[in-house]
Each structure stands twice: as C-alpha cells, then as structure tokens.
Design goal:
Blueprint (H helix, E strand, L loop, with lengths): L15 E8 L5 H11 L5 H13 L15 H6 L6 E7 L2 E7 L7 H8 L4 E7 L6 H12 L4 E7 L8 H15 L8 E4 L23 H7 L11 E4 L2 E5 L2 E7 L4 E3 L3 E5 L3 E10 L2 E3 L1 E3 L3 E6 L10 E4 L5 E12 L5 E2 L3 E6 L2 E9 L5 E2 L4 E14 L10 E5 L6 E7 L3
Parallel strand pairs: 1-3, 1-4, 4-5, 5-6
Antiparallel strand pairs: 2-3, 7-16, 8-9, 9-15, 10-14, 11-12, 11-16, 12-13, 12-15, 17-22, 17-24, 18-21, 19-20, 19-23, 20-22, 23-24
Helix pairs in contact: 4-5
Amino acid sequence: MSTTMSTTMSTTTVDTLRFATAGSVDDGKSTLVGRLLHDSKSVLTDQLEAVQRVSADRGQDAPDLALLTDGLRAEREQGITIDVAYRYFATPRRRFILADTPGHVQYTRNMVTGASTAELAIVLIDARNGVVEQTLRHAAVAGLLRVPQVVLAVNKMDLVGYEQGVFERIVEEFAGHAAELGLPSFTPIPVSALVGDNVVDRSARMDWYEGPALLEFLEDVPVGADPSDAPARFPVQYVIRDGEVRWYAGQLVSGSLRVGDRVTVHPSGEVSEITGISVLGTEAGAAYAPQSVSLRLADQRDVSRGDMITAGVDAPALTQDVRAAVCHLADRPLRVGDRVLLRHTTRTVKAIVRDLGGAAELAANDLGRITLRTAEPLALDDYAVSRRTGAFLVIDPADGATLTAGMADLT
C-alpha cells in the first residue's frame, strides 16, 4: 500500500458532516447512498414503498436503492443521475448532509456544486473497470476544492469475487495519480453497494480487509477546523442606521471579534475600534464564526456593503490581479478579453479576463486556470487557507448568470 493513503481514525465527532459522492457514470454512487440510507434505517416507509413500486414496474426483483436519491423524473427514466441529490440522515453518533453528484462528464459542474461545501468526498470506482478518466477528473475536482477528506470506495467487489488483489491494484493505480491531483492522502475501502458489504456493516466476505466499514469511517473521521480559530473575516452585508449610530451587519465567516478590538476596514485601510456587538438583537462582548452579527465602530467611517472588516495581524491580501483555479459552469464559453463581474463574499467588482492559462477558451465543465484584473482591490485569502474568503464567482454583467467558480491561488 502507498504511503499516500491515510487510515488514521479518531473518536472526535462533530455535529454534522457534509459529504459528497463522485465517480464515473454507473460506478454505483446512487446505489451506495441508497444503501447507506436503507441500512442505517434512515428511509421512511412510504419512500421505500415508492422505490419498490418503481422497481417492480421495471421488472426488477429487488428494490433499486439508487432511486432513493435519483429524484428527478428524467433520472429515473434514464437510470442516471443528472442533478445533485441532497439527502439528510443521522445516526446516534453524527448527523449527515450528503450530496449525490452526477458521473457524466457533461455534469462536472454539478459535482463542483455538490462538493464545494463538503468536508469529505467519496470517489467511487467500479472494481471491474478500475481507474478511468472521469474518476481522475472527479478526484481532481475534490483536490481543486480542497475537500479535507477523500475516501476511495472500490465498489462492486461482489462482481470480482471479492479478490484482494483487484482492490490493491486499483488502490495502487489511484495512489500514483493522487499527489498530482492535489490529494495528499485518501482512505481506501472495498465495498459492494448492491449487496451491502462494508457499507454499514463490515463484510465477512472480505476478511482480508481490516479497516472500517464506510459508515464507521463517516461517523469517526475528524473533519473541519473550528472557524472561530481562524483569522477574523467579517464581510459587511448591510449598513443599519440607528439615528446617528451605524451598525454593520453580516456573517462573521471566520475568527472571533470582541468589543475593544482594533480592526481594519478593507480595501480603504481605515483603522477603528469595535465599541459594540449585537447578536440576534442582544448586545454581547464577543462574536464567533459563523455567527451573524452587527458591529458598531468607535468613529464614523465610510464603510459600505462589500467591505471586509478584519482584526489582528493576519490581514488578507489586497489585490487587483486575481489568479485562480476554476471550473467553468456556463454553456457560454469564457474567453480572454471578456468583461465580467467578480463576486467575492459580499463585494462585486468589474473585471476583465487577462489569461486562461494558455487556453483559447473555457467551455462548460472545463477545469483550468485564470487571471483576472479587477477595477477595484479585493481582500482575498488563498483558497488553500480559507474556502470561504478564497472563493469567488465570475458573473455575466449582461444577465447576472454565473459563468465560472474560482479558487484564488495567491502563491
């Protein structure tokens, strides 16, 4: 086994784990999610009855658990996942929000949507086919989005006789690509979603595997640093005037702020002091991410929507030259010279596309690199440091449509 793999477990738990499934079409993502829901007793009786009826109409002997997540009529008719299907379930140890994302290359942008807020990604591989192009593409998206944890679920082990050698060959091949795809580590688990091996319960058919079942790993995996431990970032969303007093409302996306803290307003660079914090209409001495709060400053400053209030020495980089990794989301291609809008937290500025990493254009679902020049400075963090303040959207100024999702690279 490669040293790039991680099987370290922890008893640390969090309230909620957000995770996404990904992989090539027909690798069994929806069936795996359906198996998780079914075997963890998270399916309502009427939901299961509906799946049984549809499965029977198709001539299937057993319920097709993939239908628990393939909710769109077009998906059920075609037997594929088109959109991102979100499901919520819980065990005694943890709550889960899962996003079952599409496998087809033309729906890569949907996978970006599903994985953008995920703390863990499950990349599936059909044990019969091994690592294919779309497997690597989805792994690259997980790396691009800096998803903290990645599970390599080698599925359909029942169709290869539960052979240990098949599993190990696939894991070694994937490990050979992992580093270049931006995945410093991953956890491999052999499963059969159809039968249920190593999904919720460990399988006696693979006694050579000594690791956890998938649900065990999901319950125990350490995820997510406390956002209040990061540098303070407060994008101003709204200015509230209360007589002569101004309150600045928004969400504290990271860090903490206290009455008496010296703060800097970006991009102006003006310095002031917090004299009041209001949380849900009640004054407080401190605020912690991700609370929505209002701040009062010591003196009248020209602060407006889109400004960023920070505290401490770890200030964001002020820049008008934005370099980033991107996934293009729109059907309309993006080209050098295009005039666009760039939306970062609550701030929207005009920008022009300067470079596309040597490409002539970016088409829908393309992954690439981009350089933009903005009309005004932005208070950016590197996406590798902060997924909240390092991310942005490129928008069509004509109709407001989202064109591209960007992850700032300030290195």
